[in-house]
Amino acid sequence: MKHSIFHLLSSQRDNKKEGIIYPEILEEAVQVFECSWDSSHPYMVNELEYHFLLTVDKIIMKEKWKKALADGGSFPSLPVDYGYRDNMHFWFSPFKDPYPVDIPKDKKQDVNTVHYQAERIDPEVKWDIEASEKLVRVPRVFLKKVLTQIVEEAKKRGISLVTADLLDEIRAKQK
Fold first, then answer.
1. How many beta carbons lie within 10 A of that of residue 131, not counting itself?
2. Closest CA to 143 of 108, 173, 103
3. How many Å is the Cα radius of gyration of the chain?
């Protein structure tokens, strides 16, 4: 790639592990998500379907674009549609300055997605579907952490089946 018009930078991750070669990132990128593959979860469902669970290690965005998103303003012209979500809006732009679109109030994950991940946290702890249903509004980026904490609490209590009642008890204890 000696004739590439782009400039490569070293990974910007905070906690690099020794012996791992991390991909370089493009200096000219508007936004970069540096991710790691969570290999603790099986990824082949069947011959046609694969699931990969990624952990976002770092999100990098140039300060001027962060400011444009936060305060409004010009955004780079890109040859693709792109979007950004904050706590109030999803910002979307097809080839021009972004504009806000309200996030739907009923925004949630599919219960089967939550249940699939929950069942893989620890083979000794199973989940009933009603418990998984209570977690469909947890943002996907936080789901593994939430599930892991619930499983740890269940194991502390000697419980091998996470139920909706257990989640209610844990939630009440946190208040």
1. 22
2. 108
3. 20
User: How many C-beta atoms lie closer than 10 Å to residue 16's C-beta?
Assistant: 13
By CB atoms closer than 10 A (0-12, 13-18, 19+), residue 80 is: exposed
Length of the chain in terms of residues written: 175
CA dihedral 97, 66, 68, 85 (to 10 degrees): 50
pTM check: above 0.70: no
d(CA 149, CA 145): 6
N-terminal to C-terminal alpha carbon distance within the chain: 55
Angle at 108 between CA 69 and CA 124, to 5 degrees: 120
pLDDT tens-digit profile of 107-140? 677 888 899 999 999 999 999 999 999 998 887 7
